[in-house]
Amino acid sequence: MSTPVQAPAGQQPADSAGRRAIWLSIAALAMTFMLPLAGLVMALFALVTGIRALPLLKGAGKPTGMAVSGITVSSIALALSAMATGMQLYLMNEYSALQECMKGAGTVMSQGECFTQFRDAAQRKLPADVLELLGTMQP
To answer: Which pLDDT tens digit goes with each residue over 27-37?
Structure first.
């Protein structure tokens, strides 16, 4: 009967390194759409985890596809969350004005007016190309 070999304390087993990287990157992508700043932090964490998993997997002779996929997805999440966070910071005053207007809006019509004011303020601040890319979605 043989005893299972355990990894030394502080080291992760190679089998789970790739899975950990891809799961963290998927979580980072999901967080990007809910809370962009939290998605940014999670994407950085997932990227580091994926990069650290590569040599671990190569050293154990395991396939590196999961780690590479984790690095790819976390890079996409990092880019998206950085853009969304930057946009939120750039339009911070307009978002604050929208929130204040929505607090006092008691009807659907007045909420529509709040959004129209926000859209007009964003149009004055953003280039036309960015507005076309964003479309006419309501926040």
So the answer is: 999 999 999 99
User: Up-side HSE of residue 93: CA atoms within 13 Å toward CB?
Assistant: 5
* Predicted model pTM: 0.74
Q: What is the largest CA-CA distance in the chain?
A: 76
Rounded distance between C-alpha atoms, residue 24 and residue 47, angstroms: 9
Residues contacting residue 53 through CB under 8 Å, at least 6 positions apart: 17, 18, 20, 21, 64, 66, 67, 70
116 burial type by CB count under 10 A (0-12 exposed, 13-18 middle, 19+ buried): exposed
C-alpha–C-alpha distance, residues 77 and 47, integer Å:
10
